[in-house]
Amino acid sequence: MSIRFTPPFPAPHASKSSFLLRFWRGWNSWIHVLFERSYTMKMGEIHTPALDFYLANELPLVRRIMETEWKQFPKHEFQRDLLLPLIGNSVFSANGQDWEDQRQMVNPAFGHTALKTVFPMMSDAVDDLIAHIRTMDLSKPVPIDVLITHLAADIIYRTLFSVVLDTAGSREIYDAFHAYQKHSQRASTLRIYGLPMLGFRRRAEADARRIHAVFAPIVHARYAATHERGERGHDIVQSLIDARHPQTGAAFTEAEVMEQVATIFLAGHETSASSVTWAFYLIARDPALQAALRDEVETASGGAPLAYEHLRPMTRINNVFRETLRLYPPLAFLTREVTCPVQMRDKHLEPGAMLVVSPWLVQRNRDNFPEPHGFDPDRFDDPDQASACRHAYLPFGKGPRICVGAGFAVQEAKLAIAGLLRTFTIETVPGKVPEPVSRLTLRAKDGVLLKLTPIEKRRA
Predict the structure, then answer these.
(1) Nearest CA to 264 among 410, 393, 113, 95?
(2) Does residue 13 lie within any of the structural domains?
(3) Is 346:354 a contact under the CB 8 Å cutoff?
(4) DSSP states of 10-42 as a string?
(5) Which end of the chain, N or C, is surrounded by fewer C-beta atoms within 10 Å?
(6) Which residues cross the membrane (predicted)?
(7) How many CB atoms sit inside 10 A of residue 386's CB?
(8) Which long-range contacts (CB under 8 A, 24 or more apart) does 139-145 make?
(9) Helices and strands: H and E segment counts in the chain
(10) Which residues make up each annotated binding site for heme?
């Protein structure tokens, strides 16, 4: 095995940060708090004035928390409160019987995300993005993170509402969610340390309202059309409007439909935007790999427009995306709550404590993956790493609360990578190395700039 290169990540500190340094380093990004032993320890702990944290990295503990005893470790109230302005009490944040009931209600909506069904919408969105890129001044680097966020948001918009997301709406969502991440990060850091939130929570709530304002009129109009005029669509929002509680038969209110829509929209586009952006950066770093991926696309498609059946043979692109998710999981930390006294290794955990399972750490642990910080898509074809790829790979979570959109995200990524690679060569910009920061999702601190050149122009 040989890694192709080591992409950027924050150099871990030599030792655990002091109380004040931990506060300062966590002000902008959780992964910047990590120290060397964070990447190898079985279980760690941090105590703050407001919360006790326990970081579970050992694979049997991860399995216990996420799979075998998952009901004892629901989503932590702290995370639920952090997301409340954005998604309310929706299927992502709910716990217990409430979650089980909501899951039954929203399951029919995911029938609209069947991969063959959504392929034409994804393909049209990719084609529209390529057409838009062609109108840009490509003599200058382009902000690939903004473009891919628009693509991901447009795809989920078409699936949710059967309409195309315009550029203005996409940019508003990108800017508002970036602001939300920054303000909620600072509010949560202050809260962890038992300090007043200094208005950061109010700013995050205002950011959430900006996001909701983009699609709230669509939800309102569709809800009214169904209940007042009997009009019906054939998409996710219609399934949510039609959903009924498994015991009471009650429908979602308009506000509850809005919460579920916000959850599906934000989970469905932001995580994909993060991971596909990082994938393009990694591909841009490796011209030889990029050429091989481009050849794979042409071999699979025979030079024809991309079709659904062309994606399965694109195994190298699939491995590149899997390795991207290993190195840059969109959700770097998954939080759970201790609900009763429990013993884990040599630690006694009391109710209310936060258990953290970190895909960022588990997937970068050298006990799980050799040369864990290195980029090596071929590791997914290595028999010696097969067990790690099954058990130490959790970018979509694990257990009953695993992300239901995993297949959707992978198809979207493969189509985006294939579509852009057959149209443009992609290069990094000297001196512009993206710095990953972890807030709600894992993004590049100052975005990702890449140089795109139309292939026909290079051949001329």
Answers:
(1) 113
(2) no
(3) no
(4) PPPBSSPPPHHHHHHHHTT-SGGG-BGGGGT-S
(5) C
(6) none
(7) 12
(8) 141/429, 141/432, 141/449, 141/450, 141/451, 142/449, 142/450, 142/451, 142/452, 143/447, 143/448, 143/449, 144/277, 144/280, 144/281, 144/448, 144/449, 144/450, 145/273, 145/277, 145/443, 145/444, 145/447, 145/448
(9) 17, 11
(10) 403
> Do residues 460 and 443 touch, judged by C-beta distance below 8 A?
no
What is the domain range of residue 375? Answer: 19-459
Asked whether residue 8 is domain-assigned, the answer is no
Q: Indicate whether 419 belongs to any domain.
A: yes
Handedness of CA 191, 29, 443, 379 (dihedral sign): negative
Q: Which amino acid type is present at position 451? A: K
pTM (2 decimals)? Answer: 0.93
Is 328 in contact with 275 (CB distance < 8 Å)? yes
Nearest to 410 by CA among 328, 338, 327, 319: 319
Alpha carbon distance 411, 398 (integer Å): 20
* β pairing state of 52-56 and 334-337: unpaired
Question: Please, what is the Cα angle at 154 between 148 and 159, to 5 degrees?
Answer: 135
Amino acid identity for residue 453 in this structure: T
Helix (H, G, I), strand (E, B) or coil at 130: helix
Name the domain count of the chain.
Answer: 1
Pairing verdict, β 449-454 and 142-143: antiparallel
Q: Residue 448 sits in a domain of what CATH number?
A: 1.10.630.10
Residue 127 lies in a domain: yes
- Where is 302: in which H helix or E strand? none
Phi, psi of 45 (to 5 degrees): -145, 145
Question: What type of residue is 295?
Answer: D
Greatest Cα pair distance, the chain, in angstroms, is 69
SS3 144: helix
Provide the terminal-to-terminal Cα distance of the chain, rounded to the nearest Å: 38
DSSP string, 408-420: HHHHHHHHHHHHH
